[in-house]
Amino acid sequence: MAKIVMKNIKKRYKNSESLTVKDFNLSIDHKEFIVLVGPSGCGKSTTLRMIAGLEDISEGDLLIEEKRMNDVAPKNRDIAMVFQNYALYPHMTVYDNMAFALKIKKINKSEIDLRVKEAAKILGLEEYLKRKPKALSGGQRQRVALGRAMVRNPKVFLMDEPLSNLDAKLRSQMRAEISKLHRKLGATTIYVTHDQTEAMTMASRIVIMKDGKIQQIGTPKEVYDHPVNRFVAGFIGSPSMNFISATCSDTALKIGDLTFTIPKEKIEILKTTGYLNKKITLGIRPEDIHHEPKEVNDSNTFETTIDVSELMGSESLLYTSLGDSTLIAKVNSTNIANGEKITLSIDFNKIHFFDKDTEEVIQSTNQSKLISIS
Amino acid sequence: MIKKIRPYVYLVPAFLVILCVTLAPILYSIFISFIDLTKNVHKLDNPNLWSFIGFTNYINVLKDSVFWNSLVKTIIFTVVTVGFEFILGLAIALILNEKFRARGLVRGLMLIPWALPTIVNAVLWKWFYDADHGTITGLLAHLGFTDGYSNILSHTTSALIAIMTADIWKNTAFVALILLAALQSLPKDIYEAAKVDGAKPFQRLFSITIPLLAPAILVALIIRTMEAFKAFDIVYIMTGGGPGGGTQLLSFLAYQQSMVFGNFSYGAALAQIMSIFTMIFAVIYIRIFYKDRG
User: Fold this and answer.
1) ipTM of the predicted structure?
2) Which residues form the ABC transporter domain (chain A) (predicted)?
3) What DSSP designation does B256 have?
4) Does pLDDT of A365 surpass 70?
5) Which of A51, A91, A93, A105 is the best residue to mutate to test the B interface, defined by the most B CB atoms within 10 Å of its own CB?
6) What is the pLDDT of residues B176-192, one digit of tens each?
């Protein structure tokens, strides 16, 4: 339950030319669940470790509750951290693992017992308190790691890819449990992951990083609906957004040999920003492409041959091509065969435009205002 | 049938080697410890003169005050050297586990005392303690600890301290090496978790490091205890058991009785008694070592 402010934070490792974290600015509010997400090596873990005090901050200020924490030891920051490999003390029982921090703080025994048992109850660990970590499953160990953080009632929870060692089923289960826990405890949480699904499902705000730089900060809906550049657009959402070369005149959009009519507002954006008749990158989410079972000949449809059709249960992923790029479509039809010739339609209301060179999103000025406010 | 025998055939050469160089001498030594060879070693050559006297040799050893004096010295030697080697070895291992400039070089240098043959080590220290030219003798004299140059190796207590120092100097490196290897295999994130949990360096040492090192510590201690209990060469070179039996450790006593005084049955019985002690350590060691490996 703390406010965290990071001002111009930079990290440069010894013997390294470049910055691992470049100019990180973020203000986190009470009770927020912030997810730092990005590909490996983007500096998200380093940022988290700087907040924890496990790495020095090369430049900039870290404020927790308006106190500068740069030179404060981890133990005095009132934080708790959950590690990727759990980092449980292997020689201690589950109970002792959870009680360790409290014992060090010299909290009296009955209070320790109360807190550990309460955490164990919430996490469903009551029957395992006397076991050592070795005798627990991955999911149980993860719960102990969470419990160890919980019993301390910290101001801030830090989690470094806590679910990456679990299998898919357990992961989605723990995802829900952590979200539930966050709502219950209300502690400010900073969570690092490379998995966009975790980011989308758990975060109150997502911070997307690449090469040590923040790309975008926003709620899951904001970053999904209004990505600021091609990287964010491709990173958030599964399967990834399709990127296709296109040119747009003031009447139609041209992709390869195909011509589409697109909504006037979309053309207006390109007109005001001066991208008409220039090569641009078009971004289309797989879920915005639909299967048209009946033969229609609308201005937003095209006929194509399906290379591969993957049945996902209630929906299918179709791999085909549009212009000279591959295209993935997520459609509701579940009976499309490989090699079948079908008609697909594109919801052009939901497309995104990106500059071919800078890869920044092309947007009208009032739209960009909207994003910067959020 | 041949398939069943074949593996054993392959084992025969190795077995023969072990039989000749290990088993046979042990059995022979046990045999000697049960016959009377007092004052005449040549009785061994003639089976007609062999007189089995049961445990008489053992009883003689246990009745001998020299044995008890020697056992006490051996225990002092073992406890003090192993104790210091453990504390210093752990400290060195902890230091060498930290990152600093030229750490690789320092690690290499640390191993030198252990890499030296015991004989060289013993001769080296004998010279340090030399009554007329010894470095340590001179240092002690000039610092005013002793009244001029004194013969450290000729006083009972100081001679024992001298051989213990030499042994500690050499074998600390071994303990440090084992503990360092174990330290390096400890996961880093556990320490980070402990830091975040608020543990100070000393609390991390006693609550995390030492418990996690326990298996390695036990192995190092037991190996060193077994070796210290059998220490021989360092005594042989530095003091010859003297002065007045002041540094007469059990191995040296066994050697002296058999090889110097020709008292073979006494020496053999003493050697068997020592073997029992070392075997107890060995059993503990093997139990611990193989417990985790199934």
Assistant:
1) 0.79
2) 4-236
3) I
4) no
5) A91
6) 999 999 999 998 889 99
Residue A260 shares a structural domain with residue A171: no
Contact B203 A104 (CB under 8 A): yes
Q: What is the DSSP letter of A71?
A: T
Question: Which chain A residues are closer than 8 Å to B214 by Cβ?
Answer: 91
Residue B94 near residue B241, CB atoms below 8 Å = no
B103, pLDDT greater than 80: yes
Report CB contact under 8 Å: B197, A84.
no
Identify whether A239 is preceded by a cis peptide bond (ω within 30 of 0). yes
Domain count, chain B: 1
Query: Is B207 in the A-facing interface, judged by CB distances under 8 Å?
Result: yes
Residue B56 lies in a domain: no
Residues of B in contact with A80 (CB under 8 A): 196
First-to-last alpha carbon distance for chain A, in angstroms, is 22
> A121 with A219, same domain?
yes
Segments forming the whole domain that contains residue A25:
4-230
Establish if B190 touches chain A: CB-CB under 8 angstroms.
Answer: yes
Clarify whether residues A167 and A61 are in a common domain: yes
Provide the CATH number for the domain around residue A94: 3.40.50.300
Residue closest to A9 by CA, chosen among A159, A231, A215, A214: A214
Identify whether the C-beta of residue A98 lies closer than 8 Å to the C-beta of residue A151: yes
* Domain CATH code at residue B134: 1.10.3720.10
**CA-CA distance, A23 to A45, in Å (whole number)?**
15
* The pLDDT of residue B278 is above 90: no
What does DSSP assign to residue B154? G
- Residue B44 within a domain: no
Distance from CA of B203 to the nearest CA of A (A): 8
Report the 10 Å Cβ neighbour count for A325. 15
Alpha helix segments (H runs only) across A186-217: 196-202
Are A248 and A330 members of one domain?
Answer: yes
A89: which chain B residues are within 8 Å (Cβ-Cβ)?
A: 190, 193-194, 207-208
**Out of B190, B198, B207, closest to residue A75 by CB:** B198
Q: How many CB pairs under 8 A join A and B?
A: 60
Residue B52 lies in a domain: no
Domain assignment present for A235: no
Count of domains observed in chain A: 2
